[in-house]
Structure formats: C-alpha cells, structure tokens
Here is the input.
Amino acid sequence: MYERDIAAREMGITVDKVREGFSMLSMEVRPEMLNGHGVCHGGFIFALADTAFAYACNSRDSVNLAQSCSIEFISPARAGERLAATARQHFQANRTGLYDVTVRRADGEVVAEFRGRSYRVRGRIVRFDPYVILVEPADGTPPQLVYKSAVVSVSGPRGMGRGRRPGHGPHPRPRGGRPETAGS
Here is the structure.
C-alpha cells in the first residue's frame, strides 16, 4: 500500500510497524508544516493520524475506507520534532470497524487523539504475485517486499508450448462463427 501512497511519502510519513488491527507510523515536523503560530498545522497531524488509521484498518488485506473520523488536539508540535501515531483496533464487526489513534512526540507527550470508523468494501490490498516474497530482516528493521528472479519452465512461458513460435500462440475463433468470404 505504501508504494501507492503518494501523500504519505510526500509528507515524509514512514511506516514503522503494521500487524492485524495495529499500525505505528511516524513523521518529522518540517518548517513548511508550520502554521501562523509557529506550530505544526493541525491538518498535518490529522493526516498522520488518518494514515495510521488507514494502515491499521487495511492490515487484514481487505479494502477499508474511512466512514467518519474526529480528532482532539491536546498539545502543539514544533519543527524538528518527530511524531509517532499508534493506531489500534477498538472494535470490528461485519463491515465496520472502530479505531483509536494516539499521536505522541518523542518525549511521550500526547499531541492528539483521533478516532476513526472504517467501512469494508470489495477488493484486496495485496494482490498475489508469485515473484514477490516478504523478507523480515533479523535486525528488526521493517519487512520488505522483494522480487524473486523469474523462473521459466522447460516448455517456456504461456503461449509457447510445443511447436509454437513466440507470439504465435492459439488464436481465438472470430465471433459470429465462420468468416465471410468475398462473393458469397
């Protein structure tokens, strides 16, 4: 999901941990994120919390969307501070879920409390790809998806079976039966 999450990447949000019903994401407050009072704009804090909510509610490989959410701002964050958002599933039944997200500074002080309600729709987050494996490094760094080298069978890739040249696989029959001939 992170590979397609342009907004999170552009804001510098990193995914630190994800497991079923849980996520921990973080972001450094940059100078361009400050409002007119010299503190982090609430929209950026909301975006961090909302993104943590998204990763927690989509952690079971089913597509979930935000149905509603709210945030309470507790204390300010300033440029250079690293914020961590921890999302936890509070409730899940049928298609809806309820998640709580706490945003904290590195010193542990709470910056904001967020609550989101999710709604499950059709689809999957991770599509099966036989050439991709999940590698979990022993040093505790986050797991990564890694591409395996392609393996081609002795008979060759699909459409290149016995006696066929590449690109000359089976041709579908034209719709409507036999093709018309001139003069018929």
